[in-house]
Specification:
The complex is a heterodimer of chains A (332) and B (417). Helices cover 77% and strands 0% of the residues of chain A. Chain A has 17 helices and no strands. Chain A is mainly alpha-helical. The N and C termini of chain A lie far apart (55 Å). Chain B contains 18 helices and no strands. Chain B has 417 residues and is mainly α. Chain B is globular and about 60 Å long. Classes of the chains: A mainly alpha (332), B mainly alpha (417). Chains A and B meet through helix 1, helix 3, helix 12 and helix 14 of A and helix 2, helix 10, helix 11 and helix 13 of B.
């Protein structure tokens, strides 16, 4: 049987790469280049079933989660932090309240272990979409700050205040990377960062806190205390592989399960749009799509149908955003 | 010294973590084990580099220290779950080996290299076979002749991986000696893979016939060419996220064994095809060079983390004898096979350490011939460990010395009236 699986794999691989050849030129915001990675993961989830396969690949999932948090944290260089004003904090805090609004609605329909992650997943905007806003830094900074606050709310809700404290402590591992940035070659720094990310991720799981928040603090430490050119180079290098590994990992957990949950998505779009319109007016459309962090949060729950729902929502919301963005020509 | 202190610190940290907290699941244990392997392996590798040894020696030591057989710092289950990484690494390394075989070099030296390789392989086999046979007869092994033939074939192998890594680390690139040693290593791999297929059929394993083995080999060659073509197409039309692409490719190729296609042969042919028959050789080589440090670290550390040090110690006397015999007969093979004085003088050092392929073949022997597989496995791993400890460093020095002597002799030749 395994021989046939290998043949299927080969066929999938050829199709996958052929699809990339066709779609590579049409990237834009609609990540066709991500969709086939997700589909590859979905197909592999049928080909390789069973606990052994997932156990072997767990470093990949966990590294993807850690990368998501780290990649987000490493954006907070000193230069960006200097641009934060009191108003950005205020807008960021107000935007983060979306988490509580969603939770208030969702907890009537779902248990806490579903309602809390869902609230976080759908209140966190896509960092990369936000960064595409060309004029006006306030929505970008406010959006980024709201993501940090929502991650903290999520961690407190699931793991308690102790979880946040532990995440900060584990994040201090970033100090072990900084001295080596200047004396090691780039690839060597990445290997070291990889090792520490795995360590932080495993310690987070052992001591019951969020991998994503711990890795975020680690990325923040590296960005804040090292020279911008080092951390910027690291962001650029890991962004794509991180995103692909997240999509691939979420595909591996494919399970449709509770289809009713998709009804939530229909209500979500206008609610989200209205809420952020009050704060950011025309730039509120940039808050509609969800991003890598949302996918990572869903994977952290380890609930397959939730992961599937998040991944599919990600693609749908991206299409909606693309439709509005191009249709209305809301260029900034 | 800082690197050694950091290695010791993290080893101690692992010891503390193991004592204080039990990982809640196997998955967490896997990630924890991998984290410490990467960190401790990295720091020990840097420490050994500062001592002018190859970083590979550091990775090897890290693996042995962290092995569950040594100090109980890690458990077996998580390490066994990480073997897919070594499978992927082997494919990657085999692709790199194939990439190093350039047609231009073969055309220039082809007949000479094949003659030299055959000379070394045959002479070394005779020496190792004889020594093994005497040993197996002494310990009253069930089928000493079969065991000696298999062990003799295994110990012909030389590590292309180690050769590539040492050449890169020595900073002495594009030397005739380096190219020659690497070509011999790769040719030996191909010869032994072919030989092994015949031997397994001859001695009777899993009911496979010689004809089937030949069909499988031809199939592997064809698939290797197809995969190489696909890689070139991808690089022409897409050419993004190459490390991710290579990871997926290596994973898929490693699964080919389930359809009786040899992943190692496919990988070598893939690399050879990309280098010599497509435009993508140079660019693909750069991508491989970028990700190779991580691959080497994981491969060497993980492989040696699953090694039973105590069993190795018991067979150490015969291991040392076989290494000595291999060295001596390799020297003899060089004397017979080449007229180049520099390769005769320095070449044997570069041909001592064993190949990662040996580990794969040893596992095949163990499952196919359980009555003799155990002893062959322990001896082979012993040879790998001992030669990995000293041979890369000696080879590195030999490369530098050979390059200097070659330069000097060319200088003398050009200044001669």
């Amino acid at each position: 049987m395994k021989g046939y699986f290998a043949i299927i794999l080969f066929v999938v691989a050829v199709s996958f790469f052929s699809a990339r050849v066709v779609f590579e030129k049409k990237r834009g915001f609609f990540r066709f280049a991500g969709l086939e990675i997700y589909i590859l993961g979905v197909i592999l989830s049928f080909v390789f079933s069973g606990q052994d396969f997932f156990t072997s690949l767990c470093p990949l999932f966990i590294l993807a989660l850690a990368f998501a948090g780290f990649g987000f944290g490493i954006q907070f260089e000193k230069g960006i932090l200097k641009e934060i004003r009191a108003k950005s904090f205020l807008y960021g805090f107000l935007a983060s309240l979306n988490f509580f609004i969603l939770f208030f609605v969702l907890h009537f329909f779902y248990p806490m272990n579903i309602a809390i992650p869902l609230s976080a997943i759908f209140s966190i905007p896509s960092s990369s979409i936000l960064f595409s806003i060309k004029k006006g830094k306030r929505p970008v900074i406010a959006g980024e700050l709201s993501i940090v606050l929502i991650l903290i709310y999520y961690t407190v809700a699931i793991y308690g205040f102790k979880g946040v404290l532990l995440s900060v402590v584990f994040g201090l591992a970033g100090f072990l990377i900084i001295p080596f940035e200047r004396i090691l070659k780039k690839m060597e720094v990445y290997i070291l960062a990889l090792g520490f990310l795995l360590l932080v991720a495993s310690l987070s799981q052992m001591f019951n806190t969020s991998i994503i928040l711990s890795a975020f603090f680690m990325g923040f430490v590296v960005a804040f205390f090292s020279k911008p050119r080092y951390s910027s180079a690291m962001v650029g290098r890991i962004e794509q592989p991180l995103f692909l590994s997240l999509l691939f990992s979420s595909g591996l957990f494919f399970q449709l399960g509770n289809i009713v949950i998709f009804a939530f998505l229909i209500a979500y779009i206008p609610i989200r749009f209205l809420f952020t319109f009050l704060l950011f007016k025309r730039k509120s459309i940039f808050f509609i799509p969800i991003g890598a962090l949302s996918i990572a949060l869903s994977i952290e729950t380890k609930i397959p149908y939730l992961i599937t729902f998040t991944a599919i929502s990600y693609f749908i919301l991206l299409v909606v955003f693309e439709f509005i963005y191009r249709g209305e020509k809301w260029y900034t | 010294m800082v690197y050694l202190i950091l290695s010791a610190f993290f080893t101690f940290l692992l010891f503390l973590v193991r004592r204080v907290v039990v990982p809640p699941s196997v998955m967490v244990d896997i990630v924890l084990s991998l984290a410490f392997i990467v960190i401790i392996g990295f720091f020990l590798g840097k420490f050994f580099e500062l001592l002018q040894f190859p970083a590979i020696s550091g990775y090897l030591i890290a693996g042995l220290i962290l092995s569950p057989y040594s100090f109980g710092l890690m458990n077996f289950e998580p390490l066994n779950n990480l073997t897919f990484i070594t499978e992927i690494a082997l494919v990657f390394i085999a692709i790199q080996s194939g990439m190093e075989m350039k047609m231009s070099f073969l055309k220039k030296h082809g007949r000479g290299i094949i003659k030299l390789t055959l000379s070394i392989a045959c002479v070394t086999f005779i020496g190792v076979f004889t020594a093994s046979l005497l040993f197996f007869q002494r310990i009253s092994l069930e089928t000493p002749l079969k065991a000696a033939i298999l062990l003799g074939s295994l110990l012909i192998l030389k590590s292309p991986l180690s050769t590539i890594a040492v050449i890169k680390e020595s900073g002495v690139k594009k030397t005739e000696m380096g190219d020659t040693i690497l070509a011999i290593a790769i040719l030996k791999d191909i010869i032994v893979i072919l030989l092994f297929a015949m031997l397994i059929s001859l001695f009777g394993g899993e009911g496979s016939s010689i004809i089937l083995s030949i069909v499988e080999l031809i199939g592997s060659l064809a698939v290797g060419i197809i995969v190489g073509g696909l890689v070139a197409l991808y690089m022409r039309h897409v050419n993004v996220e190459m490390p991710v692409f290579i990871f997926i490719l290596a994973f898929l190729v490693s699964q080919f064994r389930f359809i009786h296609i040899d992943p190692l042969l496919v990988s070598i042919i893939t690399g050879f095809f990309i280098q010599n028959f497509t435009f993508a050789g140079e660019e693909f080589q750069k991508v491989l060079d970028n990700i190779s440090p991580a691959i080497y670290l994981l491969f060497f550390a993980l492989v040696h983390a699953l090694t039973d040090v105590h069993a190795i110690i018991k067979v150490m006397p015969i291991v040392l004898i076989l290494i000595g015999v291999k060295w001596l007969f390799t020297e003899l093979g060089l004397i017979i096979g080449t007229k180049d004085p520099i390769i005769k003088k320095f070449g044997s050092v570069g041909l001592i350490n064993q190949s990662g392929l040996s580990l794969v073949l040893v596992l095949i022997i163990e499952s196919t011939f359980p009555e003799i597989g155990g002893i062959i496995k322990v001896i082979t791993i012993g040879v790998i460990i001992v030669t990995d400890l000293f041979a890369p460093a000696m080879f590195k020095h030999a490369l530098v010395k050979a390059a200097k002597e070659r330069k000097r002799s060319r200088g003398k030749t050009s200044s001669a009236p």
